[in-house]
Amino acid sequence: MKITVLGATGGVGRHVVTQALADGDQVTAVVRDPSKLPTHPRLDVVRTDVLDPTALAPLVAGRDAVISSLGHRGGGPQTVLADGARSLVRAATEVGVRRVLVVSASGAYTEKDDDLVTRALAKPLVRLFLRHNFTDTERMEQTIRASGLDWTIVRPPRLTDKPHTGRYRTGYQGVRGGYTVPRTDVADALLSLVGQAESIGRAVTVAS
């Protein structure tokens, strides 16, 4: 499989790259600092601005999927997710790439399978403190949903740096009691969902 990874040096993105290479995939990593990734015969590391669809288009052309794990840096109003989504949609549409997967956040949404504590206490508090980030997250999801592409949105809860387990849970209406998940397992889920047709056009929660 040939994939392009946006945000490839971030907490989730670097694990997507590592696991994809271990699976035998050909990976193009779009980064701001190429020195943060190791060399590999099946890895092309390209320094470019992911917010520029003209620059991004040739880096996604001919790929089986594009995975965006762009994330926020710090607090305050931000638009990196929404801007990145618009750039990705324009680039993918221009070159005819259909399959895109993006990392979102379950904390931004109240989901049917959330337990009472999560729904009534945890998520409202998280949304209060991360309101700027979640506004950007919501706009990103809106752009992806309206894209007309074969999209999947992946919503993890609080991310941790625990080792890869492969024993995560997924759900289309939330994951009951799923408060955390290792970044390594989110990467695993992203790569697994690429070939799952039932996930197209849906948001998938991934949690431990």
TrEMBL record:
Q: What SUPFAM superfamilies is this protein classified in?
A: NAD(P)-binding Rossmann-fold domains
Q: Which Pfam families match?
A: NAD_binding_10
Q: Where does the record place the NAD(P)-binding domain?
A: 7-194
What PANTHER family does UniProt report for this protein, alphabetically? FLAVIN REDUCTASE-RELATED, UPF0659 PROTEIN YMR090W
Protein name, UniProt field: SDR family oxidoreductase
